[in-house]
Design a protein that fits this description.
The structure holds 2 protein chains of 2 kinds. By secondary structure, chain A is of the alpha+beta class. Chain A has one domain. A 3-stranded antiparallel β-sheet of chain A has the order 1-2-3. Chain A is globular and about 35 Å long. Chain A starts with a helix and ends with a helix. The N terminus of chain A is likely disordered. Chain B is of the alpha/beta class. Chain B contains 18 helices and 23 strands. The mean pLDDT of chain B is about 95. The chains are: A alpha+beta, B alpha/beta. At the A-B interface, strand 1, strand 2, strand 3 and helix 2 of A face strand 14 and helix 9 of B.
Chain lengths: ~80, ~550
Amino acid sequence: MNAAARRLPEPAGLDEAVVTGAEIVAGHDGAAELLVRLRHGNGAASHVTLDAGTGFDLLRAAGAASLDGLVGQPWRQLIKDL
Amino acid sequence: MYDLLIKGGTIVDGTGAPGFAGDVAVKDGRIAAVGPGLTGEARRTVDAAGRVVAPGFIDPHTHFDVQLLWDGAARPALAHGITSVVPGNCSLSLAPLKAKDRKALVGMFQQIEEMPPEAFTEAFDWTWEDFAGYRDAIEPGLSINVAPLVGHSVIRLWVMGEAAGQRAATPAEIAAMQDLLRECLGAGAVGLSTSFVDVDEHGHPVPSRYAAWAELDALSAVLGERGRMLQIVPEFYATDITLARIDQLAELSLKHDIPTTFSPLFDSRFTPDNAERALQRVEAQFARGARVWPQMQTRPIDISFSLLRPSLFFGRLPRWVRVLRLPLADRLAALRDPKTADAMVEDAGPDGGAAMFADLVVRGGDAAPAALAGRTLGEIAAERGEGPARALINLSLEHGLDVAFLAASRGHDDTGRIGPMLASPFVHIGASDGGAHLASFATYGDTGYLFSEFVRASGALTLEGAVKKITSDTARIWGLKDRGELKVGLAADVVVFDAATIARGEERPQFDMPGDGMRYVRDSAGVEAVVVNGEVAWEGGAYTDAKSGVVCALN
């Protein structure tokens, strides 16, 4: 990556995504999975589904005792540690 | 003289036309006559009074590849009225496969099917390498019909060896794969399956996931020579990627004039627009002339877990999360500590966990006493004089934590939303995964559930419409030449069932896999007789000795 590329700003909105909710959902293989809801800086909403291992890693990265502790956390900070 | 006469039933012929009172006559494995008041002698007569007589059901998404080598009925699929199955899905088939690559493929199959190792070492002899050889190995023992896909991962493995799971193919390798696919199609493969999702037993992507677009395009060109099916597993957990895959399938369908299908497609109350967006995209692509069939299963998704492994099922309970994340020895110690257990019970709410845990079902097939299998934790807790949360902990501790619990219908479970989708002419009912996930959940009985839940309970489909969806629609989509309708001259695949009672039974553990391996199964209800190519293969709750199944002929 050259110096000019390094100076490019982060894509608008993505850097400000925060967790707005977390749900336990049923996965295809019969395991409980984690649905994380996100609100991006540009106002758009999205979600991502994580398997059990990644879900627990996310809780650990957030320092959250349970799913409720994920709400309000900055998404990009959380996934840096995954 | 007819070989078989099914008399006095209501004929639901698979076309969607209203049922009518009549008989079905069979001779030489074919339907010889359909209509009211058929006369003529028959070697065997089946009384179908008060029952529906329909074409045999077709299951387009299974993993019976291994089981078919020792069980030609794909039990219990046949007992549910299924007379034809499509194995070889998700990029994995048992052929073509060089002897040196068997170990690698077994690992992939075990990951998907959860079959015990003995299934691959004791239950059959590997007598084949090419696709024709596998066909020869299964066909003599078949009592169910088979329309096998060939897996993209094994095609890669044959041509590229270990590199199949490491890199994209060269032009020469792609050309060799085309030749091999052509050979497999000539030997009876109904199409090609590929996967963008599956992993092997080490968590590594299966070989098909290393393919570049040019490779899939080249293989689709070979499918186009015969108009055969391309089946894929898209990134179903991410809607936007699934939409992109739908568009890619549409391009392949239009370019090579092939049918395509993807599975699974689920509905979820948590993300209610997912399935709707996928179906809108499918309809838009059909409007362009593409054929992209989403497969949707009928059954809801259950969540299962034990305290042996951390489960997100407890994700809202801080003390449970903390304990279950501990290493096993520490977890056992924590659960045995009265103060910790008390805190966990308190976490579960003032009702002792009744709201959260009372409906859980003890699954059986593990270290729990067999007598508890199928019973709710609420019932068991009451007998023990404990609350459900306490009973969950104590019952698990008493059996080394090897007690599996089931939370039923936690996904794809909104009948009011799913019914209209299943009824859509753009939705292909399938994705049962029959023969897979053996130790996780039962993949049988989806056809019975279609009738009990979506015909009788909700009325989302008519009886005739439901039969059409899993018979003639499926045969047409897959190009099965002579199946799917009760029509003179077609293969005599017939199911006789009671429209008022056809259903799936309760899930239960069964130890009938090689090496006394366990799997979860569901028995059928309301299915009275199943005829495969003119021979009664199942009746009165039992399998017969008929071995009349074949590898299906194609259009």
